[in-house]
Design goal:
about 150 residues
Length: about 150
């Protein structure tokens, strides 16, 4: 198998494995009522200042309509809350509840463990090469047009 085929096979398996393993790692008994997608919405909302729906949708590269469906579910499950702006009642801000912040930290811990496990195996030069490679892959995904 040449390098091209090896890279292709590794990338395909890696994406599938990350999604499967992440689902098993973050959807624990405490968070059994949410999905991987829900966790990524929670991650996009974050624990900082509340965000409006447009900002969250942009971060996730989805439409506001698609995000609204996910947000309705997260509000119903108690992970997020909506709050109208005092200055402009048309603007709705989203923030995490206490339960949502717990889910955010739980998800962040998985990502931290994953990153630490990779970096522990690499020397400084290898970290630089892998970082450059992953940035190129990220740039490809962000610029990819169907």
């Amino acid at each position: 198998m040449d390098n091209y085929e090896t890279f292709n096979e590794v990338l395909v398996r890696l994406f599938r494995d990350i999604m499967d393993i992440e689902q098993k790692a973050i959807i624990t008994p405490e968070f059994r009522n949410i999905t991987n997608n829900d966790m990524h919405v929670i991650e996009a909302i974050g624990i900082g200042a509340p965000k409006n729906m447009s900002a969250i949708a942009r971060e996730l590269s989805v439409t506001v309509g698609t995000l609204t469906i996910a947000m309705n579910s997260l509000v119903k499950k108690g992970y997020t809350e909506r709050e109208r702006s005092e200055k402009d009642r048309r603007i709705v801000y989203i923030h995490l509840t206490g339960k949502g912040r717990q889910a955010f930290h739980h998800h962040a811990k998985f990502h931290e463990q994953m990153t630490d496990a990779v970096m522990a195996e690499l020397g400084e030069e290898e970290v630089q090469v892998l970082g450059k490679t992953l940035k190129a892959l990220t740039d490809f995904f962000r610029s990819y047009k169907k």
